[in-house]
Amino acid sequence: MVNPTRGVLYPARLPEFHRLVPTGPASDLVAWFWIPEWDIEPGRSSRQEIVGYPALNLVVEPDGVTLSGATTHATYRDLRGAGWAVGALLRPAAVAALLDDPASVVDQERRLDEPELLAAVTTAMRAGEGHRERAVDVFSQWLAERVGVLGSASFQANALVEVLLGDDAASSVEEAATRLAVSVRTLQRLAHRHVGLSPAAMIRRRRLQEAAEQLRVDPDLDLATVAAQIGYADHAHLTRDFRTVLGIAPSTYRAHAGR
């Protein structure tokens, strides 16, 4: 599921950016850790625009710890000065230990009072060579201790995300339910409890990420071809979703992303 640029609308604008795959117990809790580091000239800024994965992120920065909910639209952040962040794209199994209702933080951020995690990650990020790996190690240890032993429901929730977002993802909610051997209603409850979005919304987000990536990598593809390849009925449906989430037409995005 790790892709270095999917979800990032304009990869050329990225500062130094790393994605690290978790190991050990954290493998069931985190899809990947992401670490941007930046040092931007005074008076300048770098806008980072994202169409995020339908998941929650636990983020440590020098000024605190934040839990970011799944998003329903493209988001951006203007980077200024010097800084860093260490984020964990959470698997559903980790969410229940941090939040009772993921839907309550959709399109929102919530500050968490986690001084031990903040101190451990900050110390690691200041440690010189190998600082990113050390930051991920202490983050992983903290999260594994916080979540504890996983039950069958947690693994079922993780399987939900793989079926909806993985390399061989289901093309419909009904197909996903069949693969997991559950009812559509059970699938919807799992998604609401562990992500905060509906399964249909998660599928749409995956398709939009794939569409943006294809338009950016191969700008000569016509929209009808892109729509067909990622499961849209026609390019009109793709254009509608693109405008709803990103605020621009696919053709406009393609023109800007190629610069």
From TrEMBL:
GO molecular function: DNA-binding transcription factor activity; sequence-specific DNA binding
Alphabetized InterPro entries for the sequence: AraC_XylS_family_regulators, DUF6597, Homeodomain-like_sf, HTH_AraC, HTH_AraC-typ_CS
Organism domain of life: Bacteria
Keyword Transcription regulation recorded: yes
Pfam family, one: HTH_18
Keyword Signal: no
Keywords (A to Z) from UniProt: DNA-binding, Transcription, Transcription regulation
HTH araC/xylS-type domain mapped to chain residues: 155-256
Entry protein name: HTH-type transcriptional activator RhaS
Organism whose genome encodes this protein: Microbacterium hydrocarbonoxydans
